[in-house]
Write a structure and sequence with these properties.
Number of strands: 6
Strand order of the largest sheet: 1-3-2-6-5-4
Oligomer: single chain
Distance between the termini: 16 Å
Length: 95
């Protein structure tokens, strides 16, 4: 199964801006990999919460649509809230 997720580049970096994103129901994320510059992105919480319950979400390549461009990535790490069903941060790796 393939997943396509809408995302945007985020310009503000840091703890305060990440908290503001989470408060606005957005998930801060980063994409990194060898030979490429890391990209800080944000995406809607509602887009991630349901599809991350599927096991193949972690094993297959995902397609992120970032400002009109498609980028293939894989989930490297994910931080979840301690007791709520919220995603705090996601690390992606270029596929």
């Amino acid at each position: 199964m393939s997943y396509t997720i809408q995302a945007e580049i985020r310009t503000e970096i840091g703890k305060g801006s990440s908290r503001r994103l989470r408060h606005a129901n957005l998930v801060p994320a980063v994409i990194y990999g060898p030979g490429k510059e890391p990209m800080s992105i944000k995406m809607a919480q509602k887009d991630i919460v349901n599809i991350q319950l599927n096991e193949d979400f972690y094993n297959t390549d995902l397609t992120l649509v970032i400002d009109g461009k498609e980028v293939k990535v894989r989930v490297q790490a994910m931080q979840r809230h301690a007791y709520k069903t919220l995603i705090e941060h996601i690390d992606f790796k270029f596929a």
